[in-house]
């Protein structure tokens, strides 16, 4: 097949992890006979430096014309002064909104070889397999903001259609899995959460009676995620709760650097990015974990290019690289840590020697 992928390496460790992802993607496409057009474009802080804005028109245009978008990470201290007028993050929010990718899928699986890499006890982690569906284009991230000398405000708004569509996306996913959906809110305090709970309940009863629905308050969910993570299948929640809980959930897998994500809208086009940030503290040292980005590429192959076999081959290659000991410092434990490049090499080798 032929496909066009817009590539946004971004800032900090973004370009480092994306470079490995592209090497592996090229090799994989080559061995399956696919022709991929990979176009790298300025985005985030790098784009602010180059053209004064985080999401230049040319970048957005290329993303809208592509079959999928692969993103590294954005942001950094250079652009994050509290009084900064333009921020890399505005580019990311603008891109998510412009692509209409309201459903952010963040799967969390625990690799048996990495049980010891987590700070959580192995017997709590064995068999964890859950997916967060984070609402990505609404809520407090996108509400009106005010700032005065002595006060500031951020408005949180959700509409019925926004809640309906994210509930359906999560429920469809649950249908293909263990048919359990946990909806997370703060309905004892927030009006948006009370609407969320009502709409979610109605959609599930009418359209997904075969999927078991439970509601959970966000504070309790933060606790249960660590206490009994195996009990969760699909979790759906609003934008900011999802942002926070997925960083927490990454500790189940052992490292923030391992988690991929897919942001999807109505069509096949999607935005794929690891859930980690630009990690300015380790940028340029060649030690960032590229696996979250590689696994995001697998999600891209599956969801946007309809290539489930290729996706599975890549996932299996990442697994085997980890088993073979290719572990960046964040997941190395007491063993020898490898570089970003070596981790990429290990995946390339595994791709060349299919399981
Ligand atoms: C994420 C990130 C972003 C978010 C930031 C960089 C704006 O933390 O994708 O989780 O908050 O959505
Ligand atoms: Mg986040």
Taking the sheet with the most strands, its summary is: 10 strands, mixed
Overall domain count: 2
Q: For the terminal residues, how far apart are their CA atoms?
A: 24 Å
- Number of distinct helices: 13
Sheet/helix structural class: alpha/beta
Distinct bound molecules? 3-isopropylmalic acid, magnesium ion
Assigned CATH class of the largest domain: Alpha Beta
Strand fraction: 15-25%
Shape: globular
Helix share of residues? 40-55%
Q: Considering the protein shown, what is the CATH homologous superfamily of the largest domain?
A: Isopropylmalate Dehydrogenase
Short description, anyone?
This protein has two domains: 1-103 and 254-355, Isopropylmalate Dehydrogenase, CATH 3.40.718; 119-253, Isopropylmalate Dehydrogenase. The chain contains 13 helices and twelve strands.
Can you describe what's shown?
This protein is 44% helix and 18% strand. It has 355 residues and is an alpha/beta fold. The strands form two sheets. Strands 2-1-3-12-11-4-5-10-8-9 form a ten-stranded mixed β-sheet, sandwiched between helices. Strands 6-7 form a two-stranded antiparallel ribbon. The model has no long low-confidence stretch (mean pLDDT 97). Bound molecules: 3-isopropylmalic acid (IPM) and magnesium ion. Residues 243, 247 line the site of magnesium ion. Magnesium ion (MG) is lined by residues 243, 247.
Key traits:
355 residues; 18% strand; 13 helices; Isopropylmalate Dehydrogenase; alpha/beta; binds 3-isopropylmalic acid; binds magnesium ion; ten-stranded mixed beta sheet
Write the SSE topology.
Blueprint: E1 2-10, H1 14-32, E2 35-40, H2 45-51, H3 57-65, E3 68-73, H4 88-99, E4 103-109, H5 122-125, E5 129-135, E6 145-147, E7 152-154, H6 160-175, E8 180-185, H7 191-207, E9 212-217, H8 218-227, E10 234-237, H9 239-253, E11 262-264, E12 270-272, H10 291-303, H11 308-323, H12 329-332, H13 340-352
Parallel strand pairs: 1-2, 1-3, 3-12, 5-10, 8-9, 8-10
Antiparallel strand pairs: 4-5, 4-11, 6-7, 11-12
The structure holds 3-isopropylmalic acid and magnesium ion.
Magnesium ion binds at residues 243, 247.
């Amino acid at each position: 097949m032929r496909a066009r992928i817009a590539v946004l390496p971004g800032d900090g460790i973004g370009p480092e992890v994306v470079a490995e992802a592209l090497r592996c993607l090229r090799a994989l496409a080559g061995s399956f006979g696919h022709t991929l057009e990979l176009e790298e474009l300025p985005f985030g802080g790098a784009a602010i430096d180059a053209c004064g804005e985080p999401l230049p028109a040319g970048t957005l245009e290329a993303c809208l014309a592509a079959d999928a978008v692969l993103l590294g990470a954005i942001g950094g201290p250079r652009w994050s002064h509290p009084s900064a007028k333009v921020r890399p993050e505005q580019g990311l929010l603008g891109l998510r909104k412009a692509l209409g990718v309201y459903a952010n899928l963040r799967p969390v699986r625990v690799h048996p070889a990495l049980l010891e890499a987590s700070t959580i006890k192995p017997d709590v982690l064995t068999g964890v397999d859950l997916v967060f569906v984070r609402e990505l284009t609404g809520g407090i991230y996108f509400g009106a903001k005010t700032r005065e000398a002595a006060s500031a405000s951020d408005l949180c708004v959700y509409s019925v259609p926004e809640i309906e569509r994210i509930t359906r996306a999560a429920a469809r996913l649950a249908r293909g899995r263990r048919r359990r959906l946990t909806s997370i809110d703060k309905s004892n305090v927030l009006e948006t959460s009370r609407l969320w709970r009502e709409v979610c309940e109605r959609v599930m009863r009418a359209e997904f009676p075969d999927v078991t629905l439970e509601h959970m308050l966000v504070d309790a969910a933060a606790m249960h995620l660590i206490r009994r993570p195996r009990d969760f299948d699909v979790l759906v929640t609003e934008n900011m709760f999802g942002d926070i809980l997925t960083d927490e959930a990454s500790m189940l897998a052992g490292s923030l650097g391992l988690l991929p994500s897919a942001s999807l809208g109505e069509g096949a086009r999607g935005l794929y990015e690891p859930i980690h940030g630009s990690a300015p503290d380790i940028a340029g040292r060649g030690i960032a974990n590229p696996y979250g980005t590689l696994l995001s590429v697998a999600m891209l192959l599956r969801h946007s290019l309809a290539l489930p076999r290729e996706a599975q081959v890549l996932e299996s290659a990442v697994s085997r690289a980890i088993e073979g000991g290719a572990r960046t410092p964040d997941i190395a434990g007491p063993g020898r840590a490898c570089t970003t490049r070596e981790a990429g090499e290990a995946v390339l080798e595994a791709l060349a020697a299919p399981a």
